[in-house]
Write a sequence for this structure.
């Protein structure tokens, strides 16, 4: 049975290691920029719609409809 | 820095999206059929291919691997190129992945009704398909890692971490759990037995939920919710923390599926502790998803896509709170083997996976076809049908689970079981099962509305296969970059580290079980199955009996009173695979064969019951298995099966395979002769004889020492 205690001990050691790495990472400023990536991913579509050929031809129509609907609603 | 121009190819993402819709409808439909089969046992029209036992694995596999699987790949093939500013690594690999995965699904849809199954829940597919899954998964991994390597953004967005963790973990899970010894084409035995097999199976089963249905779908959530709401996720920091916490903790929680079973107590306790801790990272994901919509709730009111995401993430939060509660031993004592479990998984499947998928599809199709969604009100109707369908499904089943569990456990003042007849406890919850059908119909009709809506959307637009984009080429990493950023910048290193994190958890739980013999009590009277019983056991597996009957008497007074002596770990040491089951739609069979036991029935009763269950009990909900009395046992396979068992360490006498057929014939003829005395004419080489032999063997080994000492 002794190997169980050894392995549990090892498990706690490893888990502790992860915890230590995490605390160290936070304290040493690892996650200073934890905002930009979340915003950057939003800009893909904007680019797609302005650069993309088919998007340019069809999208304005959609937008017009949307605008028309909006103005109707208003 | 030079700006590079490149093009995204939407074709594969569209293929996967269409496959998601198609297999989703199939999965819901089969679910509805099996729900009706429980109510009307004659519904299979005496066809062996569509009994509940064979269709239920088809339902679970269709929903998990076909519907959700294709949903994952849709999300991956759409989001990953855009997040990494590069097309997928290889269009050829993408196509092999797509068609290979559909081939796997078709193989599953053909083999499961044929009864070709390993008998392990959610891993029923036989070894040739398992190998195909492995190959296709490698193709997927190659394609994803290749794309990561040639990316143009240094930072890897959180969604992709979840995809990577799913990729790596599912590979490890699938390979470990599918280690099996082939006997012939489409028939194999798990290399693990009894407790070991149960442990590996539920480690797999739980983490299939954790990484296939959860981690991959959190990746989907982290891409599509911000996109649909046009808001950045609430907290990027939280996403980092809860990602690491989730993948590290999930891998330990599998044993909570085996509480009060004959697995070692310390393993059960470990599973409970980690399950409870899991609330934190799970709710981290839910909170992050829901709070992303702060300031955008006006959009939620308008947009069916966001509505679906909100219900999906809420269902995720509810299911991941309920899961840890179900892992508490005192709760599990009630919930296990009842409909509570079924309700729980459907909150996850119908709510979380279903709603997230629908939301994604309604968001994607207009972008694929560069046109507005055909009908917003149709999508809103779908939203309500799906939400109500989920509730109509789950809430009655919660009542059913509680009701049946309490009836199983109730004693009279005199100390007898109040409901000794198992069927009585089922008939009580039959109305709830009717409500479940209503829920299923609502959910399926919502799905049909989606098909119409998406088809009309596709028709009104023109598929835009290619989308151009541009981005600067990737710079060499700056020296000052911090560690976690560097880690994110090295996908291979990241994948390896994620693998190590999950392996540590696994090894610590596995190794002791394999190396320490004291975990498995060796019981001298437990002997290997006779060749006929082994053949009967294979028929039991083939017909999917484990889908309704457990073989695990838990150490409760109510269960010992109802079924007999509680199950010991040493009893199942020759069970490749284990057949403990997870739901008692019918009674437990672990002590079925014990003469003078609570459930003992003579051979003739078993014969009548299998051929026509309603003859022995008018209200029985078991389907009839008349073909068992007609079809012959595959006697020629016996030596091969004995040989396989020998090489798995089952202690048959050396050279037993050569005399196994004789042994089988003798036992079969004696059973047939006994049946003849009871007035039943049946040839000795029929499958029903083997199944009866197996039934009469169940649970007898332990009582053999007490009663006769001979077996």
């Amino acid at each position: 049975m002794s190997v169980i205690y050894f392995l549990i001990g090892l498990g706690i050691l490893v888990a502790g290691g992860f915890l230590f790495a995490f605390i160290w990472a936070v304290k040493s400023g690892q996650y200073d920029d934890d905002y930009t990536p979340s915003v950057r991913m939003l800009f893909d579509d904007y680019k797609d719609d302005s650069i993309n050929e088919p998007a340019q031809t069809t999208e304005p129509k959609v937008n017009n409809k949307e605008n028309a609907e909006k103005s109707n609603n208003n | 820095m030079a700006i590079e121009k490149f093009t995204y190819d939407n074709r594969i993402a569209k293929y996967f999206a269409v496959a998601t819709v198609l297999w989703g409808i199939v999965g819901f439909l089969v679910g509805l059929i099996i729900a009706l089969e429980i109510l009307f046992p004659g519904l299979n029209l005496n066809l062996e291919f569509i009994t509940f036992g064979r269709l239920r694995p088809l339902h679970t596999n269709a929903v998990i691997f076909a519907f959700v699987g294709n949903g994952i790949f849709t999300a991956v093939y759409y989001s990953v190129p855009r997040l990494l500013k590069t097309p997928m690594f290889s269009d050829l690999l993408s196509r092999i992945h797509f068609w290979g995965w559909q081939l796997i699904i078709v193989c599953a849809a053909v083999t499961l009704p044929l009864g070709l199954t390993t008998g392990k829940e959610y891993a029923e597919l036989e070894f040739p398909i398992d190998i195909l899954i492995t190959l296709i998964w490698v193709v997927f991994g190659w394609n994803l890692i290749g794309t990561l390597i040639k990316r143009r953004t240094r930072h890897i967005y959180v969604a992709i971490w979840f995809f990577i963790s799913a990729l790596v973990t599912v590979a490890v899970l699938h390979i470990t759990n599918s280690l099996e010894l082939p006997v012939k084409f489409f028939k194999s035995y798990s290399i693990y037995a009894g407790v070991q097999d149960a442990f590996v199976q539920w480690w797999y089963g739980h983490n299939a939920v954790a990484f296939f249905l959860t981690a991959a779908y959190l990746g989907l959530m982290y891409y599509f919710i911000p996109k649909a709401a046009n808001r950045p996720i609430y907290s990027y920091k939280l996403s980092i923390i809860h990602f690491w916490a989730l993948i590290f903790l999930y891998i330990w929680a599998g044993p909570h599926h085996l509480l009060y079973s004959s697995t070692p107590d310390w393993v059960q306790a470990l599973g409970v502790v980690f399950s409870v801790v899991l609330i934190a990272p799970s709710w981290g994901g839910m909170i992050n998803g829901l709070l992303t919509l702060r300031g955008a709730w006006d959009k939620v009111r308008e947009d069916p896509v966001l509505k679906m995401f909100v219900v999906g993430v809420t269902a995720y939060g509810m299911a991941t709170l309920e899961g840890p509660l179900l892992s508490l031993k005192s709760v599990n004592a009630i919930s296990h083997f009842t409909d509570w479990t079924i309700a729980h998984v459907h909150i996850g499947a119908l709510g979380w996976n279903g709603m997230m998928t629908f939301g994604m599809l309604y968001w994607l199709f207009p972008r694929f076809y560069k046109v507005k969604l055909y009908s917003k009100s149709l999508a809103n109707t779908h939203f309500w049908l799906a939400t109500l369908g989920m509730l109509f499904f789950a809430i009655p089943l919660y009542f059913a689970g509680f009701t049946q569990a309490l009836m199983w456990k109730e004693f009279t003042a005199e100390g007898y079981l109040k409901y000794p007849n198992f069927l009585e406890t089922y008939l009580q919850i039959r109305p709830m099962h009717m409500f479940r059908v209503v829920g299923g119909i609502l959910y399926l009709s919502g799905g049909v509305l989606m098909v119409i809506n998406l088809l009309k959307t596709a028709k009104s637009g023109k598929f835009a296969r290619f989308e151009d984009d541009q981005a600067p080429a990737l710079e060499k990493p700056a020296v000052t970059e911090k560690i976690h950023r560097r880690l994110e910048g090295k996908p291979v290193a990241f994948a390896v580290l994620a693998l190590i994190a999950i392996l540590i958890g696994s090894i610590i739980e596995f190794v002791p079980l394999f190396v320490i013999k004291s975990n498995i009590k060796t019981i001298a009277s437990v002997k290997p199955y006779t060749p006929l019983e082994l053949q009967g056991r294979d028929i039991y597996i083939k017909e999917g009996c484990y889908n309704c009957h457990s073989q695990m008497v838990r150490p409760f007074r109510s269960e010992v009173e109802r079924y007999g002596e509680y199950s010991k770990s040493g009893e199942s040491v020759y069970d490749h695979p284990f057949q403990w089951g997870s739901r008692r739609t019918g009674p437990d069979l672990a002590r079925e064969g014990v003469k003078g036991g609570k459930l003992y029935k003579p051979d003739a009763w078993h014969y009548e019951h299998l051929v026509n269950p309603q003859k022995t009990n008018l209200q029985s909900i078991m389907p009839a298995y008349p073909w068992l009395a007609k079809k012959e046992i595959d006697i020629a396979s016996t030596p091969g099966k004995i040989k396989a068992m020998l090489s798995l360490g089952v202690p048959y006498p050396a050279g037993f395979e050569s005399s196994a057929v004789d042994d089988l014939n003798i036992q079969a003829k004696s059973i047939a002769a006994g049946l003849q005395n009871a007035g039943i004419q049946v040839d000795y080489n029929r499958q029903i004889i083997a199944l009866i032999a197996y039934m009469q063997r169940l649970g007898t080994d332990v009582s053999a020492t007490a009663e006769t000492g001979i077996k």
In short: The radius of gyration of chain A is 26 Å.
